[in-house]
Every structure is written in structure tokens, then in C-alpha cells.
Input
Amino acid sequence: MEVQRFLRLYLANQKRIFGFIVSMVPNWTDADDILQEATEVMWRKFSGFKAGTNFSAWGIMIARLQVLRHYRNCSSSHIRFDSEAMELLAADQSGVFDQIDERVSALEDCMKKLTDKQRYLIKMRYDKAVSVKEIAEIVNKPSYTVYKLLSRIHESLMFCIRHKLRMEEIQ
Amino acid sequence: MIEGRDTFKDITELVLACLDGTISSDEFAILQARIKTSKEVRRHYLECLALCISLNRYEEESINLPVIQSLPKEEYYNDILQALAENEKVAVAVDVEKTKKEPEPYFFELEDEVVVQRRISRLSVFAFMVSAAAMLCMAVLVWFNPVKPVVAVLTESRNAVWAGSDALIEGDDIRQGPLALSSGYAGITLTNGVEIVMHGPVTIDIESETQVFLSRGSIFSKVSKGAGEFLVRTAGATVVDYGTEFAVEVDSSGSTAAHVFVGEVELRAGADIVKHGPVKRLLAKQAAAVDVAGTITDVKFAPEQYVTSVPSKYDMAVLDSDPAAYWRFANFGDFPVNEINLTTYDASYVGNIDFTDSSDLNRDIHSQALKLDGQGGHVSVKIGWQNANRGWSYSMWIRPELLADMQDRSNHYYILVGEGRYGYLNVSDDGTLEHCYRYNDGTADFRQVGKENIVSGRWYHIAMTVDNDGTKRLYINGTEASEPIEKENTSLGTGSSCKEIIIGTVFEESPAFKKGPMDKPFKGDISQVALYGRTLSQKEIKKLYLSSRN
Output
């Protein structure tokens, strides 16, 4: 019963918590590890979570400790925000990760506006997990050309999502 | 990645490279600098991450894309190439240095067996031997000093200064071995669930998840049912727990004292778990001490001497503002209000008193509160500042229970604090917080009404300051909430006199004072009462209030 309750709350808030982690440690591998550790701590301390309070805020508080711990353990990593940047990013999260479900929903429509080729590239990169380096090797082009193209596609999607969310707000 | 990228420092590209782990130190420095200087960049950075998360992790569940596997591989790559080519049409021209052609590899075969004599320098041999010796030493060290197991986690800390080790932060694992807290507060949780609260200076040695050696200071242990056996050893005694909450202290003379808050413990003379001296069972609200000679004597149970929880941020803000007294109302049953050693003035419970959970107040505030039922139960604090001609202040959290609909059309006044001789602070059924003076001859009954109404069932931070001349100021949630309140106007003493503060009702009626017909004792919850022997500034009150926010 307790497991079900935890899972229900966790799954409903996982994206937000992961968003917070990845904004502090912008690296897929590290962020995944931190989420896993944070989830273990959340489950361990779940008996102390008060029903009816904000699970997402509680989870992010635990995730924040895990991020600090990660930074402490990986002091040599060059992907490392200082405390000022972390505080600024933490303060500006509102309206981004707490709207992640709306963003995913908007993304579905925005993907349709891409050309087939752009969609294939996105699919290759994310769904098939082909690295940029591998794509670059396959097509015999420099990595930065692939990054530039991906970047342009991301920009288009971000613009589209932003526009859709704004339209929904107006409506 | 990424030659030439510093010519187009685009945030999106930097984010993509960062996520892939291909970003360079210089590029990350650029990203961080731009994040710190521009809110728009931060927003863009976060939105880009949100998009990548949506694409990377949740694509399957929400986005139906054409099935890529159905495409022939060649066609698929051709599409990518076309997409790249289209991009390059509009891309900025980049000069690329011509790559030198790699020389053709040269193969040869050995026709006959050839004996090759290799010269090995003495330096290489020496370096190898030194390296081997160093590795052997390390192996021996590891063998004889294996990494100690993790036995606890630092769950809370406040202003903690650790001696002889790196600074620990909340969430850090703690390994078996010594742990010295020079100052501040820390809460650790052993892997078996036992919670220990430390207030520096204190030195312990965590011998295992079920056993702690206390060599200096005091610790408070909370052992939940099911945690199994737990014991605290000192140089002269052993305290064996039987599912309880208790404090153990080693004083400068080497004596060990055990105070039981809940449950039952066994206090044994001697540090040896098996061979020990006399034994005494202690129940809740009992205490005993073992001296260096091994003699056990009963001592007075004194819960106020021990820190039973790590102070919250709000607690620390109060302590930093140097209060004369601070009461958090931990529920020790019929034991004193002064549960923590922060009081210059003793307070006592009068009448029917209960306690309630106040964890909904804020996670950074102590989780218990005083529950007053409106029947007259209150807390009396004798402060004796009569004719002192000095400023003073108090602050507290309140959650009133008011009549929502006032069916009988009567507006009752629930007295929150009786102060001085004639003044009192009350909250009425309509949510008005007001200050009132009332004399029995009817000559003065002037009320100073707060500007904002308060709502039943909600927590409010209340503060009252009194200037040297007796002028009072009322604050709600860190903001001054009324015009300055007139001072007492009486010949009986100076304007700032205050002999007694009564929390929850008003002082006894006297020849000089008579409470109003609709005045009633306070009904609701009160927590974190702090008393100051000076006038707090508006800035200090704001700081107190904000310390409770996250």
C-alpha cells in the first residue's frame, strides 16, 4: 500500500524532479545516477513525508542534497556550476519544469511541424540514442555540423512550444 | 566536439554538448558565465533542458513518430545527409584546414626468426621497482586498514563545525569510527533507524549501527520500536535501550548521566558490555548517574538540559537575535515549559494544557505547538520588569480557532497575551487582531486595531515591541500591522513596566483592571514564543519571519 502510494506520487512528479537535477548537473549520465540515488533516499524517508503536502518540493529538496553530494564526490569534473549559478537556476525553475506535462503535450504537435528529415534526425538522436559523434561518423561530417543542425531543430521546437503554451494561456 | 564552436557560442549547442558530456571546460565556463549574467539565458537554458527531457525520456509515451525501422538503412542515412546538406546551404562558411593525407600503412613479413635484443635502462628498472614497492605498501595498508562500513547518514545539521574531518553536509554517509562536533547541532540516523541528536561540543565513536561510545558531551537518542538493540557506552557506564528516547551525558568529572524521556533503559556501571557493575532500570521521566567509582545514584530528571531535536532555521534566527527566553513547547507531559536550555525566565503551565502537531506550520519550524482549548489554560511567565523603564518585545506563531459565522451575532475577543498591568492582545471572531487597555473605572478602554484581519485555522507570525517610553508596535508576518499603540497612561508605574506575561489569557482582575464582558481565553495553537529584554527593530522582526520561509 505504502509502495503504491509512493510510486503514484513519484511517477507524477518524476519529470519535475529530474528537471531540477539535470538543470543543476547538465549531463545525462550523472543526472540519471543522481535521480536514482535521490529516489532511494525518497523511498527511505517516505514515512516522514506528510500526506497532502507538496511531494515535488519534498523530492526536489532531497534531490538538491544529492546534487551537492555529487558535486562533492566529483570535485574534479569540469561540468560544475558554482553556488551562485545554482541559486539563480533554482530560483528560475518556475514555469518550466512545473509545466513539463504541458510541454510534452505541446511537443507532440510541434514535432508534426518538422520536416520528415528533421524528425528522423531527432528520432535517431533521442529514440535510437545514436550519439552526435556517431552520426557525424556515419555521415562523414564534422560533429559541429551535426550539432548545429540539431541546435536549429531544437530552437524551432522551443519556439513552437513557447508559442503554444502562450496561446493556451490566452485561451 | 568541437573545433571552431567558440565562434558561435550558441546556448542550445552548448546545452546539447553538455548533456552529451562533450563540452570542454572553456565552453562550460562560457555557458555558466552567460547563465549568471542573463535571466533570458537562464530561461532559454531551462527550456532547452525541458525539451531535451521531453524528447529523451518521455518520447515513447507521448509522441507517435513514423516507425523508423521500416526504412532501408541506406535511405535513412541519405535523408540525414540531405538534411545536413540543406543546413549547410544556409550555414556560415567556415574555413577548414586541408587534412594531410594519411600515409599508406606499410606491411612486411619476417622471413626468419630474428632475435631482438632490447636495451632496458636502469632508470626504467628503478622506476618499476619503486612503483611495485609503493603498490605493495598500498595493498598492505588496505589490508590492515580496510575502508570502514557506512553506519549512518547525516540527516540534519545547523551551524555544525566538525573537528578532525572534512565538513559534513546533510545527506553525507558516515562511516564507522570517531565523530567530533566542535559546535553547532547535528542529527544523524544510524542504518538501523536510530536517530541521534548532537549538540557540540560532543565526541562519539560509532562502533556499529547498534552501539555508540560517548566520550564527551551529551547526545539524545530516539530508538524506534523494531530498531533492535541499541546501547550507548561511556568510559564508566553502559546504557542499554529498550525502545525509547533518552539522553546520555558525560560530565567533566567523568560521571555518566542517563535521562529517560520515553520508554525504559538499563543503566549499568562499567563500559564492558558483558562484565559490568551495578545495574539500574530507569523508566520515563527518571534519571540516574554513574560516578567514576561505579556508584549509581538517582538524579532529577531534567529534560530542559538536553537538545532533543536539531534547531530549525527559525530557531537559529531566534537564537541569533539573543532572546531572554524561548519556548518551543515540546511535549514532555507535565514537565516544564522550558524544554530547552534557552531561558532566563521560567515559565509554567497553568490549567488545562495540550499539545498538537504543528508540522504544517513550516518544515523549518519545530513540529509541536501548545494547544489551548479556550477554557483558561495558559502559560505564565514572571519577568518582573516593573518600573524597569526598558524596552522589551515578544514574538510567537499563532493559529486561532474563531467562530466562523458568529450565529449569536456576538463578537468574542480571545485574549492572546496579557502584558503589563492593563494591556492585552486579542483576536476577535471577525479576525481582527487588536491591542486593548481596560481599567475597571472605565476611564480607558482604547483599542488599537490591526490593519489586516487574520483567518481562523491559519498560522501567523505575531510580534509586539515596546519602546523605552512604553509605545507598542504590533507586527503580523513581519510587517507592522497597526499605528503605534499608545503607552499605558497610569500613575502606577512607568509606561514600559511589565511584571508578568500571560500567554493564552489575561491577568487576574484587580482593583485597577477588569476584563471586558466578551473577553475569553484564547482558543487555538501557539508555538515558538520568544521573549526579549529589548525593543526588536522592524528589520529584526522581518528577518525572524523570513527565516521561516524557504
User: Anything to note?
Assistant: The two ends of chain A are 40 Å apart (CA to CA). Chain A touches chain B through 76 residues (CB under 8 Å).
